[in-house]
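FAQ: What does the model actually see?

It sees only this:
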Amino acid sequence: MTLPPTIGIGAALDQEVRFKARATSLPGDSVSSITVPYFGREVKVAGTRTFPDWSITVINDENFRIRNNLEIWMSGLNSHVGNLRSPNLVNNAQYQTDAWVNQYAKSGQIIKQYKMVGLFPIDVAPIDLDWASGDQIEEFSVTFALQWWESIFPVVTTDSVAAI
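And it is asked to produce this:
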């Protein structure tokens, strides 16, 4: 994920997100159906495609670097006190970004890739603070809205035998 430069986050954070984004899911796919009455029967036709929100789980560390920058990003979209958007984020290109999701084989080879287009955060989950969980790594989830996703296949590698 490359974070939008207009929110004041440096490119150096990109590698940190790549390393600390611990888990996610491959995107879902949904097309609604529209029921149309026709000669006493209901005929179903394809309706609207929707792209569900996408979430990642991030490992937090004591510098809170990723979480703090996500909070800055979200505050730029709508500030806590003023209920205003930052003047640096007035159009989609200024606050949306793209991300890639790779599924790896046991060999380390990418076997499936998706491009998530037009992401922006809509929820940064709370972090539970509990002394009883002292042997666990602190983490939180982030939910992004997206415009659409693209399935990128086949992934071209030197080991590719056939295209799907």
